[in-house]
C-alpha cells in the first residue's frame, strides 16, 4: 500500500490513495518549535516526526512512500532501506492538508488551528526578514567603503585644484573655506578679472564675502592664466562636483538601506553613523553581540591601544563622536553622553538583529531625555576633573 506523506503546522501526516488518514506525528505545540521544524523541512532536512512516522508505517507493512520533496525523499531513503521513497508534487497528503486543514485538525482534536497558522507564519516571516537583513547589511558595508573612497578622492582632488588655482589667485584659498563654493566660483567666473562684486554676489555669497573676494582679486599677486589654463581647471572642478553629487546619492542609498535593515539603530543614532558602526563591527549581527562599552569606542581602536600601551587615559568615544549631542557638548559631559548613546545603540542593534520589532522612537525619546538630564545635572565640570 502506498502512503502519501506531507507536512503542515500541525506535524507530519500520511494518507492513502483515497485520502484517508493513515497515521500522523504532531509537532510540539510551541510556535518557535513548529517554525524551526518547518524551516528544516524547507531546507529538505527530515524531522524526528518524519522518522517516527515512517518507522510506524513500516511496522504496519507499508513499503512505498510518496513525498513532495526530492531532498526529503532522498534522505529518508538513505535512512530506511526497507522502504521505497519517491516524489510526487502534489501528492494526496499535501492536497488534503492544504485544502482541509481545519477538518484534519478537528479530526485529531487540535483547536484554534487558524491562530496557530497565523503565529507560525508571523514568526517565519520575521525570520526570513532577519536573514534578508543579515545579507543586506553587507551592502551597507560595501556602500560605506565606497563613501570613504569618494570622500578621499574628493578631498585629494579639491586640494590639488586649490594648489593649482592658487598660482593664479592665491588669496582666494584663505577667503573661501568651502570646497564646493570654491569650485563653483572657478566654474562660474574663471579668471580673477571676472571676480567682481556683482558676479560673486550672484553665486550666493554675502555682501561682506563678495567685497573681500573682489578686492583681493583686484590686488592679487598671482600669475595670469589664459583660456586653456582655465578650461583645464574648470574640467577638473566639474568632475569633482559630479563626484560630490554621486557621493550624496550613495549617502541617500545608505540611509535607505538603514531604514530597511536597521530601523531602530537609524532612529537612535542616524543612518550615517549607524551604517559606519555596522561596517566597523563587520555586520549587524556582529554589532548586536558587542557590549555597549565596546560600541562606545568603535573607530577609536588606535587611540585605545595607544592608551593601554602608554597607560594614558583611554578614549571616551569613537565614531559616535559625530553625534551632534556629543560633539556639541562640553568635554566633561561627553563621556557620560557617549555611554548613554552606546547603551541605546546596543539595544537597538539587538532588536534589529533578533526580533525586527520597531522600538526606535521610544529608544530615541529615552536617549534624548537622558542627554537632557546629563546636560542639566553636569553643567559645570567637577573640581579637579
Descriptive account of the structure:
The protein is 66% helix and 6% strand. The protein is built from 19 helices and five strands. It has a five-stranded mixed beta sheet with strand order 3-2-1-4-5, with helices on both faces. The protein has helices at 31-42, 48-59, 70-79, 92-99, 101-108, 113-166, 172-175, 179-189, 197-202, 207-218, 227-261, 263-269, 271-281, 284-288, 292-296, 301-310, 324-327, 331-354, 360-377; strands spanning 2-7, 11-15, 21-26, 64-67, 84-87. It has three domains: 2-111, Nucleotidyltransferase, domain 5, CATH 3.30.420; 137-247, Helix Hairpins; 262-377, Nop domain (Serum Albumin, Chain A, Domain 1). With 385 residues, it is α/β, with parallel strands linked by helices.
Number of domains: 3
Mean pLDDT: 89
CATH superfamily of the largest domain: Nop domain
Which radius of gyration do the C-alpha atoms yield? 33 Å
In whole angstroms, the N-to-C terminal distance is 86 Å
CATH class of the largest domain: Mainly Alpha
Largest beta sheet: what is the strand line-up? 3-2-1-4-5
What percentage of residues falls in helices of 4 or more residues?
A: 55-70%
Largest β-sheet summary? 5 strands, mixed
Low-confidence stretches: none
Number of E strands: 5
Number of helices: 19
Alpha-beta content class: alpha/beta
Amino acid at each position: 500500500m502506498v502512503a502519501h506523506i506531507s507536512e503542515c503546522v500541525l506535524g507530519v501526516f500520511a494518507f492513502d490513495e483515497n485520502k484517508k488518514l493513515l497515521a500522523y506525528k504532531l509537532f510540539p505545540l510551541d510556535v518557535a518549535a513548529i517554525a524551526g521544524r518547518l524551516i528544516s523541512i524547507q531546507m529538505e532536512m527530515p524531522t524526528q516526526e518524519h522518522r517516527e512516522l515512517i518507522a510506524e508505517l513500516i511496522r504496519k507493512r507499508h513499503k512505498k512512500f510518496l513525498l513532495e520533496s526530492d531532498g526529503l525523499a532522498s534522505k529518508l531513503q538513505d535512512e530506511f532501506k526497507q522502504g521505497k521513497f519517491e516524489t510526487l508534487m502534489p501528492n494526496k497528503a499535501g492536497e488534503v492538508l492544504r485544502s482541509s486543514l481545519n477538518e484534519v485538525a478537528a479530526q485529531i482534536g487540535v483547536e484554534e488551528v487558524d491562530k496557530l497558522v497565523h503565529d507560525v507564519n508571523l514568526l517565519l516571516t520575521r525570520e526570513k526578514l532577519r536573514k534578508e537583513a543579515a545579507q543586506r547589511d553587507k551592502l551597507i558595508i560595501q556602500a560605506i567603503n565606497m563613501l570613504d573612497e569618494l570622500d578621499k578622492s574628493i578631498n585629494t582632488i579639491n586640494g590639488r585644484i586649490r594648489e593649482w588655482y592658487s598660482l593664479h589667485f592665491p588669496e582666494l584659498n584663505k577667503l573661501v573655506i568651502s570646497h564646493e563654493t570654491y569650485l563653483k566660483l572657478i566654474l562660474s567666473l574663471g579668471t580673477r578679472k571676472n571676480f567682481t562684486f556683482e558676479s560673486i554676489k550672484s553665486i550666493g555669497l554675502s555682501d561682506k564675502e563678495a567685497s573681500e573676494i573682489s578686492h583681493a582679486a583686484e590686488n592679487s599677486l598671482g600669475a595670469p592664466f589664459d583660456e586653456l589654463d582655465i578650461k583645464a581647471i574648470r574640467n577638473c572642478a566639474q568632475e569633482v562636483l559630479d563626484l560630490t553629487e554621486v557621493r550624496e546619492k550613495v549617502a541617500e542609498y545608505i540611509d535607505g538601506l538603514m531604514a530597511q535593515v536597521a530601523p531602530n539603530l537609524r532612529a537612535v543614532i542616524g543612518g550615517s553613523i549607524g551604517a559606519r558602526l555596522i561596517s566597523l563591527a563587520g555586520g549587524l549581527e556582529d554589532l548586536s553581540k558587542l557590549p555597549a562599552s565596546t560600541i562606545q569606542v568603535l573607530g577609536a581602536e588606535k587611540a585605545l591601544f595607544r592608551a593601554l600601551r602608554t597607560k594614558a587615559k583611554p578614549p571616551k568615544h569613537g565614531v559616535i563622536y559625530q553625534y551632534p549631542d556629543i560633539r556639541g557638548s562640553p568635554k566633561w559631559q561627553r563621556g557620560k553622553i557617549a555611554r548613554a548613546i552606546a547603551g541605546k545603540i546596543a539595544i537597538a542593534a539587538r532588536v534589529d538583529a533578533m526580533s525586527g520589532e520597531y522600538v526606535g522612537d521610544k529608544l530615541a525619546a529615552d536617549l534624548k531625555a537622558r542627554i537632557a538630564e546629563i546636560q542639566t545635572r553636569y553643567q559645570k565640570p567637577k573640581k579637579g576633573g
